[in-house]
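ok here's the first one, seq then struct tokens
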Amino acid sequence: MLRPFSRAAEVYCRSYSLPLQRAITDFGADVPFGRIREKLREHHGIEVPISSAQAITQNHAACVHQTQLLHTEIPTKAGVEQLIVEMDGTLIPIVEAPDAVDEDGNQIDRRTTRQTRFKEVRLALARSSEECQPKFGATFGSPDDAGDSLLDCAIAAGLVANTQVHAVGDGAQWIANTVKARFGDQATYLLDFYHLSEYLAAASTVCAPTHPDTWLEQQQQHLKRNGWQQVLSALRPNLEPETATDEQAPVTAAYRYIENRPHQLDYQAAIAANFPIGSGEIESAHRYVILERLDIAGAWWTVEKAEELLSLRVLRANQRWDDYWANLTPLAA
């Protein structure tokens, strides 16, 4: 017969073994630091101060971040024939606090002087066309840093000199440029079909006000057969005057979006090869790799702490969690 848990059985920690640090960090990678204490109490009967749980999680996150090594030299050994890669950016809440003292040396209350903003984190994934589990890379840095991150996870997924790369992304020019810079002629870049469809959906109410859904479906079918010129023909009679603002010109916006990217619209080949035509995989990864922990209600991060915790979550998403702990020297707590 199971007996109910007794608070008298709780253990109060004065030191932290490596297995306990691992349990704390495991919780801290998933939930707000304030909830680590209750989870440890619930699952292990251990009482740990919130401050210690936070410090241990952040220590390991910093260690992961500081020791990560990006591989940017494409191997010549055997790899995979085909890779799928995707990239996208999302925004994370960031807080910037000024110096703790003013010009006269008086203490400043950081809570009243901090500045908040959102900063973009760029996430990349790569996987073999035969695999479901991707490798991830993430950075708060520049598009060039994102390119290194993309190349690193592509190499981890099996990229070699003769691997063909199928890249999918939205219309952000930095993504297409990054793919070209890192993979050259090995890669083809496909514009996210569903992102393009949003432009056409906005134009449909102008081009076919009585049957916009039917019109949209027709244009999507044209695109899937590489008939983007037919789509331009359907848009052309309804182009707004040049004096119209972007908000007042959905047809013109869709027309330009397609006209400027004809080399990114080979949906027919992608469908024939059973490759993705949309970037839903990376958009979903934003949620479970980044946002579930870094965009929780009430949380604001310094860039440094956000980068470190992000590295911890990417480590686990890449299934290297066990390797990290197996090769770790115990930290002083």
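and now the second one, same deal
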Amino acid sequence: MKLQIIIAALVFACQVQAQSYKKIHRKAIVVDTHNDILMKAVDRGIVFDQNLTGKTHSDLVRWKKGGLDVQLFSVYCDGDTKEPFAFANREMDTLDAVVKRNPGKIVKVKNYAEIIEAVKQHKIAALFGVEGGHMIENDLNKLEALYNRGARYLTLTHNISPNWATSAADETNPNPVIGKGLNADGKKGLTAFGKQVVQKMNQLGMMIDVSHVGEQTFWDIIHLTTKPIIASHSSVYKLTPHRRNLKDDQIEAIAKNGGVVQVNFNPGFIDSSFDRKEMNFINEHKAENDSLIKAGLGDFYALDYLYQKYAAEAKTFRPPLSKLIDHIEYIIKLVGTDYVGLGSDFDGINVTPLQLEDVTDYPLITKELRKRGYNKDDITKILGGNILRVLKANENH
């Protein structure tokens, strides 16, 4: 009889916990600051108000299933793309078309107040984040034009640096043939024009994103900005020493600035053993991978194809969800619960941590945080409250 009572109590406790995390997730405003579905829409002809289960990490119906309320859509092209400003606008057109076709499900918003109104109406609030300063083509008017179309952050560099700021890729692995690693002044960090970009963004109320930037660029930004900054999709260097991750002093500086680190779900950024395992996987399928690239698919989409085809094999080396939570928790222990959020990189990464198969699995993050003892208020801030605070602070002139 005692055993039955114990079992019943355990079952009841599990049910209460399940209800608890689901309720927290449902009531929170869930914000993701980095999703690359627009890239796939333009590159591969993806129409994301259709059911894309099994093809992408995201689509309009699955965002709602995952409890997502606010999405900052990445506007991305390579640093060597011709006419990158025009390309950026083409990606923006793609979202505008989806919004126009689905006015009851998704709406473009310009500010914090409009986000809150969209959430009340049970619509996804959509904004842009421009991933790479090369897309402004050294023209502050083009920066303002992107802002006017709904861009609420600019990632100052992608991997290939514009001539006015140095990227993490170029600062750590400069190409001596083309002179990368240095800005137009022959130095690391921001040029005078780069500083004008930061000042213009502060003036507009556009969040400065330090994901992808080099360390010197980062510190130049910190010393110059008058508004809180973000890292839209970066994780912790101490746990995974990747050039795209943030060191402790950078995380502390972001917190002191009142900004937020939006943790990236990319397995290579959250598990230091993953890149080696992925290379073994690619080598195992080298002939097929090479033929896909030769056929014009490109490195990213060739790997996308291999991961989908050999999903069972990939499961053997994908990191567990707990690795992602470790990065969130590390930031919390270092600077507190006010300075961390979610920047998934869904559809900009080839593969995800186990359990986070797609955007329907956001609630599992809430579940894991609850299991680790975080309360409703803490989790609500992590899921979206912190980034909304920073967005609102940037609006204030």
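notes on #2: Residues 276-318 form one domain. The beta strands are 30-35, 68-76, 106-108, 124-131, 151-155, 207-209, 230-231, 260-263, 340-342.
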